[in-house]
Amino acid sequence: MEIKEFAVFADRLKTAFPKENLLSTPDQMEWWYDLLKELSFQTAIVALKKYTLANKFPPTIAELMSIAADITDDRLPDADEAWGEVTKAIRRYGYPREREALDSMSETVRKTVERIGFQNICQSQYDQFNTLRAQFKGFYEAEYRRSAETRKLPENVRIAQANIKQLIEAKGDNIGRIESN
């Protein structure tokens, strides 16, 4: 979203919630723009409309980003849909073609399957099926929460977070080298 489009968005936000002191300072405007600028103007306006029609109080940035993710269909499959991806991949590729099966899955489902082990899933006994599905659901829900939080972040924040993680890992590697000497 361009800065001029954001000004229109901000005006609509203030119009929707006139009793609130929203985006009243340049710092507030800059902060909201920085966190919402990666949304398209159309997506931001539709998210604001959806929120406004369902709520009495002004939105947070997180609420708007969550609605925007739903609008752009950037949503994650629920646990049952995810398990469906797994069973479909097993039927289609079987255990000998693990890489192809994993590549056919969405990222969150793939990470969950890798955590359990594709071969373990494929070779489990039929009487263990319900237990395996429950384990998958538990692991998937944890991965789902992490992925959902990450998906709400603007790309520039995701990149900054990844850079910080790399710096921390690099420092950890350096500390390990120093201790081993």
What does this structure look like?
This protein is mainly α and 181 residues long. The protein has helices spanning 3-16, 26-36, 41-54, 61-71, 79-93, 98-103, 107-116, 118-123, 129-152, 155-180. It folds into 2 domains: 3-71; 79-151. Helix 7 (107-116) crosses helix 9. The longest helix has 26 residues, at 155-180. The termini are far apart. The mean pLDDT is 88.
Helix and strand arrangement:
Layout: H1 3-16, H2 26-36, H3 41-54, H4 61-71, H5 79-93, H6 98-103, H7 107-116, H8 118-123, H9 129-152, H10 155-180
The biggest sheet amounts to: none
Q: For the record, give the distance between the C-alpha atoms at the N and C termini, rounded to a whole number.
A: 52 Å
Instruction: Give the ordered list of helices and strands.
Output: HHHHHHHHHH
Multimeric state: single chain
> Gyration radius, to the nearest Å?
22 Å
Shape: elongated
Query: Which stretches are low in confidence, meaning pLDDT under 50 for 5 or more residues running?
Result: none
The assigned structural class equals mainly alpha
Number of domains: 2
User: Roughly what fraction of the amino acids lie in strands?
Assistant: under 5%
Let me know the number of strands.
Answer: 0
Number of alpha- plus pi-helical segments: 10
The helix fraction, in percent, is over 70%
Average pLDDT score? 88
